[in-house]
Amino acid sequence: MKKEKPMAPRVALITGASGGIGRAVALRLARDGIDVAAHYGGNRDRADSLVAEIAGFPGTAERPAPRAVALQADIADEAEVARLVRRTEEELGGLDVVVHTAGIMPLSSVVDTDVEVFDRLVATNVRGTFLMAREAARTVRPGGALVLFSTSITRLQSPGYGPYAMSKGAVEALPLILARELAGRDVTVNAVAPGPTDTPLFREGKSPGLIERIAGLNPAGRLGTPGDVAEVVAALAGPARWVNGQVLHVNGGAA
């Protein structure tokens, strides 16, 4: 009997893979045998560390060990986003999944927000999301998925998060429209909206007491973990084909 060749691995591009949630998503997808292009903006060391960790994952008789590469780009720059997608295809042989976690979260009240900070927020979170979504829509192969990132702050509406919540509200407007525009392509488009998640970025500038109060907002009485979010992304990136055009709030019941 002729031995069947292993199936060609799927390929995922994870933006912001040097951050807490992006890293967890990259590791989770790699454990499913998906090859990973780990995008980073400025933290090359963390991206290289992620790639080295994935390189240690074993393969099986049915599925080769996942491959990973670190790729740098400014996600607010049109030419660099196009180059990022092109290099992913060149390095790994195609593109099936794009998970866009990259973004920034400067916090201040509306009255105290400098317009230059707001413009940078919009350039990264709104323009960057649009550019990645557009390139993904042009490139992702049938059976693929695009997963964008919003935030549960759009529901929690906490003071100090106004400009950030505005930028993520724009993200939430996109999945259903783009999913409908891609009808017949067999490509799903969804957004994940995490609640308070235990990452270095979340803890920055917060007292232990404040973190404890925030953790108590959901029935579990704890912060989410990057792994909690990565499990949902893994489903959207793979078997959850009947979920399309949605914004999924991954927050343990906080809102």
Walkthrough of the structure:
With 255 residues, the protein is α/β, with parallel strands linked by helices. The chain has a single domain (11-250), classed as Rossmann fold. 43% of the residues lie in helices and 14% in strands. It contains ten helices and seven strands. The chain has helices at residues 20-31, 44-55, 78-92, 115-139, 153-156, 162-172, 175-181, 200-203, 208-215, 226-237; strands spanning 11-15, 35-40, 68-72, 97-100, 145-149, 188-194, 247-250. The protein has a seven-stranded parallel beta sheet, sandwiched between helices. The longest helix is centred in the middle third of the chain and has 25 residues, at 115-139. The chain starts with 10 loop residues before the first strand and ends in a 5-residue tail after the last strand.
Helix content: 40-55%
Biggest sheet, spatial arrangement of strands: 3-2-1-4-5-6-7
Query: Radius of gyration over alpha carbons?
Result: 18 Å
> Which CATH-level-2 architecture?
3-Layer(aba) Sandwich
Whole-number total of structural domains = 1
Instruction: Extract low-pLDDT stretches.
Output: none
* SS-derived structural category: alpha/beta
First-to-last CA distance: 56 Å
Could you state the CATH homologous superfamily? NAD(P)-binding Rossmann-like Domain
**DSSP strand (E) fraction?**
5-15%
**Element pattern in H and E:** EHEHEHEHEHHHEHHHE
Shape: globular
Main sheet attributes: strand count, strand direction, barrel closure: 7 strands, parallel
CATH topology: Rossmann fold
CATH class: Alpha Beta
Mean model confidence by pLDDT: 93
| Strand element count | 7
Helical stretch tally: 10
